[in-house]
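Let us practice reading a record.
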Amino acid sequence: MGARSFGAVALAVVVAGLAVTRVLDNQYYYFAGYVVLQYVVLATAWNILGGYTGYVNFGTPAFFALGAYTAVVLIQSLKAPLAIQLVAGAIISGLLGLALGYLTLRLRGVFFSIATLALAVVLQTMFINWEYTGGARGITLVRPASAPLFGNYVQFLFVVMLGLAVLAVATAWWIERSWIGRGLTAIRDNEEAAECMGVPTLRLKLVATTVSGVLMGLAGAPFPYYVTFVEPTSVFDLNYAVNSLAMPMIGGSTTWIGPVIGAVLLGTAQQIATVTISSALNLLLVGLILVAFVILAPEGIVGLVQRLARRSGERTRRSGV
């Protein structure tokens, strides 16, 4: 897909989202759609480091929560608008990603994954003991009643998250097609060989951790107004770590479209399960689907489709001969 085609599709998606707010009144669909789009951002952000580079990150809740609590602090202290919250959340989480890169990216494999998990635990402990943001009790926030051009603020948040999802996917698409993406792929395939070939591995990994952190912080910044009650257990939820890892693997972690497919399919299935069965089954659902894909299609949906297409092409050529 060329740049013009991608831009046209992205614009069409945003326009479609705006059109939906003019014809759909049921607020549940906006709440559910927000969650699915939020996972598109998180899964895409995770994939930039975990899928393209091969560094499995279990610290998604840390970056997401930092974006959310940055917004809480700005709301409490300055009554800052959402745009300022988004920028600040992205910057703070991006700086955390950069710091994480400097401190841990010389670690590899399971040691890096454990370090990212420890980061989430440390940050959660800090916010549990920070009374300004509510501590362990949490904090209640008043969501604005409305937003310009929208019937209510929930619709506005839905469109904001749609825009962030488009931004995240566009970033991943650009990285995949650029020299950065080729360098990250070389690191994933064989980091030692990439270093020998002159690939600036450390610099590229720092780019990956920073961009991933920025996008995760963006996903977390609107969260306080979405739920209106923020406490450490909700923002450091294990679901964020599990889903952000599972969705790219189910969709296909080597392409920009894979996390989108996985997030939309799995996120929608979770929302349906929440209203029809129980929200407690979400992790079980993710686990079962992930195990099935690891066994039957380890390359994800995109890889499975590509493999079937190659087989079909080979059959066609053989029959032609």
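A brief commentary: The first helix runs from residue 3 to 23.
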